[in-house]
């Protein structure tokens, strides 16, 4: 069944990806009306999350954030589809790294990097990073159940030469390359929700007590990799900037979970400034501590 679905859907996605961005954004605007006003996709989850995080805001203010979020979400859907075939020239114009030169220092000093990021802005266009550095680029992902769609995701994210590795294999892959002296930069979405009972630490995220993913920090200390934060900002529709923000050059010198806290501090600043660009449709606070 999944194979049949893939056979039916893939040609449509490929044809969409070949369309100019202007047409895709026109379709995104139409999708927004359907998703927000007609279907109400995860609307209850979004409004509950916004109420939890911004209790001081009025209902009208939260509604305005939600509307802007859904417009952004629809843009992300079509930008992800565009990633199937987007050219390097076009994505370099639309996803601009402001300070790629700081990576040279890490490379010259024999430092591999773990790059922490959140579901903010556009995380699907980060594959262009591989073209901007000497490090060998990796990105961590959770494999999909469908083999066909999983292969499509990997192919899309490896469009510009990076290597996509499953979350269960990344430690072994990086350890082997570390032993061979290969310098790597590994992109990890670190605001994921750990499984119930499978986490080591709780902290606050946007002021709410929740389990937090600590695997990036633990891996950094184990392999002595530097840790950076990728600050992605949406400048206007279809255009983003990304900035490398150093968090911990020598992770073993930091207390347990301190680096994880630093990551969430950086992400929270962005969310509070422009909340509409965070992924509110996920149940990020479902395991929160309740009064």
Structural descriptors:
291 residues; 7-stranded mixed sheet; alpha/beta; 18% strand; cell membrane; two-stranded antiparallel sheet; transmembrane helix; membrane; 9 strands; Lysophospholipid acyltransferase family protein
Can you characterise this structure?
This protein has 291 residues and is an alpha/beta fold. The protein contains ten helices and nine strands. The protein has helices at 2-17, 21-39, 43-53, 59-82, 88-94, 102-108, 147-157, 170-180, 215-223, 258-273; strands at 95-97, 113-117, 136-141, 163-166, 184-189, 202-205, 208-211, 226-236, 239-248. Helix 2 (21-39) crosses helix 4 and helix 3 crosses helix 4 (59-82). The model has no long low-confidence stretch (mean pLDDT 93).
Please outline what is shown here.
This protein has helices at 2-17, 21-39, 43-53, 59-82, 88-94, 102-108, 147-157, 170-180, 215-223, 258-273, and strands at residues 95-97, 113-117, 136-141, 163-166, 184-189, 202-205, 208-211, 226-236, 239-248. With 291 residues, the chain is α/β, with parallel strands linked by helices.
SSE diagram, text form:
Layout: H1 2-17, H2 21-39, H3 43-53, H4 59-82, H5 88-94, E1 95-97, H6 102-108, E2 113-117, E3 136-141, H7 147-157, E4 163-166, H8 170-180, E5 184-189, E6 202-205, E7 208-211, H9 215-223, E8 226-236, E9 239-248, H10 258-273
Parallel strand pairs: 1-9, 2-5, 2-8, 3-4, 3-5
Antiparallel strand pairs: 6-7, 8-9
Helix pairs in contact: 2-4, 3-4
């Amino acid at each position: 069944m999944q194979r049949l679905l893939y056979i039916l859907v893939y040609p449509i996605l490929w044809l969409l990806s070949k369309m100019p961005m202007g047409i895709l954004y026109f379709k995104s605007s139409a999708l927004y009306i359907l998703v927000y006003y007609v279907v109400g996709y995860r609307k209850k989850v979004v409004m509950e999350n916004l109420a939890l995080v911004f209790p001081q805001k009025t209902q009208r203010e939260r509604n305005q954030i939600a509307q802007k979020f859904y417009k952004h979400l629809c843009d992300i859907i079509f930008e992800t589809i565009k990633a199937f075939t987007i050219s390097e020239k076009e994505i370099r114009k639309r996803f601009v790294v402001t300070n790629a030169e700081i990576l040279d220092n890490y490379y010259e000093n024999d430092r591999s990097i773990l790059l922490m990021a959140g579901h903010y802005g556009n995380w699907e266009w980060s594959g262009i990073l591989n073209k901007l550095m000497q490090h060998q680029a990796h990105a961590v992902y959770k494999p999909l159940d469908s083999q066909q769609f999983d292969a499509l995701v990997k192919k899309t994210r490896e469009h510009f030469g990076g290597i996509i590795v499953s979350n269960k294999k990344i430690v072994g892959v990086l350890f082997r390359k570390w032993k061979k002296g290969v310098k790597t930069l590994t992109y990890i979405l670190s605001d994921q929700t750990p499984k119930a009972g499978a986490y080591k630490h709780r902290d606050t995220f946007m002021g709410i007590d929740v389990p937090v993913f600590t695997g990036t920090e633990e891996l950094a200390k184990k392999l002595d990799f530097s840790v950076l934060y990728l600050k992605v900002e949406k400048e206007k529709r279809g255009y983003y900037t990304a900035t490398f923000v150093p968090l911990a050059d020598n992770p073993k010198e930091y207390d347990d979970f301190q680096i994880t806290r630093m990551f969430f501090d950086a992400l929270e600043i962005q969310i509070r400034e422009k909340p509409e660009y965070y992924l509110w449709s996920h149940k990020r606070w479902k395991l929160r501590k309740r009064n």
